[in-house]
Write a structure and sequence with these properties.
2 copies of one chain form a homodimer. The first copy, chain A, is α+β, with helices and mostly antiparallel strands. Helices cover 34% and strands 22% of the residues of chain A. Chain A has 2 domains: 31-150, 60s Ribosomal Protein L30, Chain: A (2-Layer Sandwich), CATH 3.30.1330; 167-347, Alpha-Beta Complex (Phosphoribosyl-aminoimidazole Synthetase, Chain A, domain 2).
Chain lengths: 358, 358
Amino acid sequence: MMAGERTVGEVGELALLQRLRDRLHRWQPTEPGCLGIGDDAAVIPAAGDDQLVVTTDMLVAGTHFRPGEIVPADLGHKSLAINLSDLAAMGAVPACFFLALGLPPSLPLAWLDEFWEGMFSLAAAADVRLLGGDTVRSAAIVVAVTLHGCTRGAAAVCRTGGRPGDRLYVSGTLGDSALGLEIITRRHGGQPFDERLTMPAAALEDSEDAAFLVRRHCRPEPRLALGRWLAENRVASAMLDLSDGLLIDLDRLLTAGGPELGAELELARLPLSAAYRHLRQPEWPVAGCLPALVGGEDYELLFAVPPAREPVLAAASSRWGVQVSRIGVLTAEPGIRLRLADGRCRPAAGLSGFEHFS
Amino acid sequence: MMAGERTVGEVGELALLQRLRDRLHRWQPTEPGCLGIGDDAAVIPAAGDDQLVVTTDMLVAGTHFRPGEIVPADLGHKSLAINLSDLAAMGAVPACFFLALGLPPSLPLAWLDEFWEGMFSLAAAADVRLLGGDTVRSAAIVVAVTLHGCTRGAAAVCRTGGRPGDRLYVSGTLGDSALGLEIITRRHGGQPFDERLTMPAAALEDSEDAAFLVRRHCRPEPRLALGRWLAENRVASAMLDLSDGLLIDLDRLLTAGGPELGAELELARLPLSAAYRHLRQPEWPVAGCLPALVGGEDYELLFAVPPAREPVLAAASSRWGVQVSRIGVLTAEPGIRLRLADGRCRPAAGLSGFEHFS
């Protein structure tokens, strides 16, 4: 390789995406009414006031999962769930999907049957149909799902609409998935992802808490009803789903909202599950909140709510089957700041989350 | 692995697809007006008399290509072209696409720039826009494209409509891609795919013929104008694109048409390029026609034309930028028969094409 020739791994995912946008722009200037790359999903005008919403996600063995560490039914569920989560984050109603599968020839058919079972049972529950796909030979398992949804008259909720003063909300609890992954990895004798997340040996044993956290990692629940309600009732000004960790994903929402947009998060308000709280160790960084701040794959919704719409949200609570928590506020000062329990603030910079190519 | 536990590789792609259909049927009975798995693309009702046509294809390094044997611009072109070919085979007008990319961290950025250049230049030529995607880390390069098109009032041409007496037509020339791949592989010191396809050493040297065949393999040209014309003018009763070889793909068209449907192919009518004819050796099986019969990745259109519509086709010839050849006829006798130059017939059974998991 030539000196100075950089690689995909050296520049990382965000720079790669920017590079793609630059190249793409030469070939296709933006088309009005059509939201392309840069949100959870693309929005395409359809009949009447409907819009087609499309998202695609790829899972690769060795990168996103190790085949021995997730049962096939969970992988089937998760492959579809993470795409449903993208549609939830747009406030769309899912409709149908397409599945491209790369499979090693040595894979037992029983594995595939369980994978399909996990995928199709979630598809039935979410009322989406498999309409096509491709199946090819591959050394590593690859699952690529493309999912269609529609807005049915409600405007899709993009990442761009957040304004200073809007309150930040999150669904469910944070950090469970990352803790579940740590438990799975350490049980299988793998290196911890984060050495700072000390865990007593007992935490790795079978327990209700461990099972809960592992399940949160392996079977994320797309927040479709909540996302849809927020769109229909015009409660959320901006929304995305948490795939790479709260700080990274919040930064995306801020970047999409404009150069001056920042946020303040209250640590004491971060919603933590009972299992998380039981497991938390005094030495974990940021007052034990590190997994909630940077842990990936929670697939909860992060959304901004203008103060005038907060009463509508409050009046409807408990109708979506998942709790909703206010965790902070958007500010006119750029950057993300963390308000500690003692009232002091610290910048969040330096606490990083998942980076796809590092 | 348990004794008697079968693998993906043991059952092969067709059995795998049937297994998927069986499993799927438990969860989602067929929906009227919505064509799902089993054709070149899915057809979804849209506004008015329009339909959304969607196809997805995945290319994996090591299975579909070797990164050292295809330049990145060609791979970018081909990844999109094979999906455009699926839409051509439905008679649809392509609209937009979604790209999921698995990339090794060690991949040079220059590789990616060339890949995008190849993909986006074809996208611009075909007037399709990239609207979304996903980029992930992967040990092997994986390219998954999902492409949308629309029928704009013309009925999509499915695989199912062929009837005994319909004439079989094919676009372009056959077998070039397979010969191109043989040249590429042997140039790189790889094992021939088919030992019976003897080639003089001179055939592997740089020449116009070799360059033509390699180009046919690396840069397939989707037959969009022809496919669209056939749909708009209701000339084709059934159609698909040739991805796995004439005999395998014809068998799919016959199977889709019903249990009694068969075909007779006239060897003397198979359209062969000048480069193919120059390279052909006397010892190649089936009178030198083996690559044309079983070679994969031609991405030409195979279609059936009712006799009453043949004059319309004949009157329009030479308006699609590609030749169209009648190669045989559909019969009420099941199976595929080959009519030899001396007038005798032989069954095609036993001559096989590409099998994805073998």
